[in-house]
Design a protein that fits this description.
Length: 191
């Protein structure tokens, strides 16, 4: 699947939005990618996840891990395509962790999946959880890298289906705030 085909799926679903957005990272941006406009369609989700899984077919992945919430859907579909199990992390007392009896065997080869990455903070937390639990983070697969290629996961390589170079601003230096452009928090209008 080409980047143009991936972008068309996002555009057709109305997932790429323009305005003034507060991102999960705390940064502001004139563009937001609402992944759930795509992920609400199982056929599109399956197609994207199969394309992502194809990149890791030869990596001997044993488990796919995604962070809650969107990462659960991705882990499930990528795991299905790779023929592996799929688990997820979630926050407990502000810290990413495995719950629900999920665990890894020492040396277990793990693919970490994420939907949209801007700073990579959540993915870095998942990498840490995988390592703390004895797993080996083999790679990171993501639907969209909106960092403009600036994100890094240290020694863990990554692959994105779609690359966007979207400008972000620290709140104190946001020209959209200076203009008085109304803000939408994380893609949801009104609140």
């Amino acid at each position: 699947m080409t980047e143009a085909e991936v972008k068309e799926i996002f555009v057709a679903a109305g997932a790429i939005m323009e305005g003034h957005f507060l991102l999960t990272s705390g940064l502001h941006s004139p563009m937001y990618v609402e992944k759930f406009n795509v992920l609400q369609h199982p056929e599109s989700t399956e197609k994207l996840c199969k394309a992502l899984a194809e990149q890791f077919m030869n990596e001997k992945i044993q488990t796919v891990v995604g962070p809650m919430t969107g990462g659960i859907l991705l882990a499930h579909e990528v795991g299905k395509a790779l023929g592996t199990r799929a688990i997820f992390t979630e926050r407990e007392n502000g810290r990413m962790t495995f719950k629900r009896g999920f665990s890894l065997q020492p040396g277990e080869r793990v693919l970490i999946v994420e939907d949209i990455v801007t700073t990579g903070g959540s993915v870095k937390e998942v990498i840490d959880v995988v390592r703390e639990n004895g797993g080996v983070p083999v790679a990171v697969g993501m639907l969209v890298d909106r960092s403009g290629g600036k994100v890094s996961f240290g020694d863990v390589p990554y692959y994105a289906l779609l690359h966007l170079d979207v400008v972000t601003y620290e709140p104190k230096a946001c020209p959209l705030c200076e203009k008085g452009t109304p803000m939408t928090k994380r893609g949801r209008t009104g609140k």
